Queue: 2 jobs
Job 1
Amino acid sequence: MRNINDLIDKAIELRNRGLRSGEIADELNISRETATWLLTRAKRESGVKAPEDIFVDWSMIGKSSSRLMLIATCMADMVEETLNELDTNVDVVVGVALSGVPLANIVAYQYGVELAVVHPGKHRYEEGKDQKETKATFSENYSSVRGKRCVIIDDVITTGSTAEETVKLIQDSGGEAVAMAVIIDKKGIESIGSVAVRSLVRVGRVG
């Protein structure tokens, strides 16, 4: 995808495949507001200002298992550095669905610890409904976080809302979130409460 029209076409394609705006946002690594704006613009509705956002396409990594492993290895190294700084360790790696899960699986394997999976609330959010009704949940097919130190792995931080939601879910579930690692941070977050946030690439705006 090289321009805004390609992005609009892709958003429409994903919507036609049955994805909700939150899922479209996750697939395109944009905010939910940007996803809604793309779909609104596709309907030729004017008067809505484009949100300030940056589109990220890391599919050249995602389509290659070897590249994915190398990137996840870099993330694991970054996590280890952070854990050493905090003088702590990890019991379970928490992958944020969808794109964070394959990365988290590799990181968990390299650490020899358990894997937990979070389904963020935005994946179940539908326009017109109360956002508070669509909370994040853990997948029952993976590890519990109760009584365990957790490292969160995701691909991109856009607004930070999913990261904050995941930290709260871990805490509410009796776990301790100690660090979070992502490929790209578009928000410039250094921490969420006491949870250290690290990224391989941080995006900054000038002006």
Note: The chain has two domains: 4-42, 64-202.
Job 2
Amino acid sequence: MNDSASWGAATRALRTGHQRTEQREHAEPIFTTSSYVFDSAAHAAECFANETGEHNIYSRFTNPTVSIFEQRLAALEGAERGVATSSGMAAILSVCLAFLEQGDEVVCSRSVFGSTVGLFSRLMSRYGITTHFVELNQISAWEAACNARTKLFFAETPSNPLCELVDLSALSQLARSRGVKLVVDNCFCTPALQQPLALGADIVVHSATKYLDGQGRMVGGAVVGSQEDMAAVFGVVRTAGPCMSPFNAWVFLKGLETLALRMKAHSENALNLALWLEQQPGVARVHYAGLPSHPQHALAQQQMRAFGGVLSFEMAGGREAAWRVIDATQMLSITANLGDAKTTITHPATTTHARVAPEARLAAGITDGLVRIAVGLEDLADLKADLSRGWIA
């Protein structure tokens, strides 16, 4: 038997979790079944009585293909267990439902995805859960917002879309000292570039839709962490049903096989494009942790292997200038998704963060002149040429 515990990350991304069936298949099979047959009534009773999810009962919460994806992602993140969900937002919601109840409080970074802001500020508040939004990189602000009712810290680092960071080791120490669970959205980096659990986080969430897929094909999410914490999350998915389909899980497995290679290439392209953007007329500022000009560049070097594929830049001319750059492109895809092999470009204030209150957007640094680019795998010269149209026009 192979000793998977000693495998390197590249090997784990290719082979973890797959136990070949009697068909001796080389690629992971897709189990397109809603339910499973038992040997006897006693066998069925035994499986249904087990709450851990180790027996295949019903594909809402147990499916062999989904299980392979969960095991493989957990192995890459250094987690004991993973739970797959129907989307990244379903992953965050499942964590909330697993660990929060009426009267509890959350401290969340101000710099998070717009739908995450909405989930905490609008939906959770309807059920008696209070969220305090703080500056991501100010540990003192997290500490000041924490009290006896605080149950979760939620951070996205690097942040969307300004690429801000938090010192995960320092934040995790604060969380532990207060008995609070630290949840980290690792969507921008993936385990190929950053492992929050190794830096002290309790739980990591993913939108698998992004880099874990890598080609913009499927929507999915995942949560990874300890056996105990994931048992609670699994209980939510089992009961409420925000589950991942077997086919989507199979596609994400294929994405994991090339994740490390793609993240390296995304990072190289993004860094070179960020350096180029700093020299372009009308660009007031470029936000990318890989730039020496980034105020947290040293921290990024400490807790990230590379700097990822997402950057943003501010046009001095406000929304008119930002829209001119976006509309002048002919090759880049104008879409709010990210993590695709194809480069995407969007205007956060009117797309990803459009439903965030204007004052909250400004507090998070999302100006009307901000443009976000998720840098893909095209030739760098072609990316520069397409973006240049906005300055030539």
Note: The CA atoms of residues 309 and 315 lie 20 Å apart.
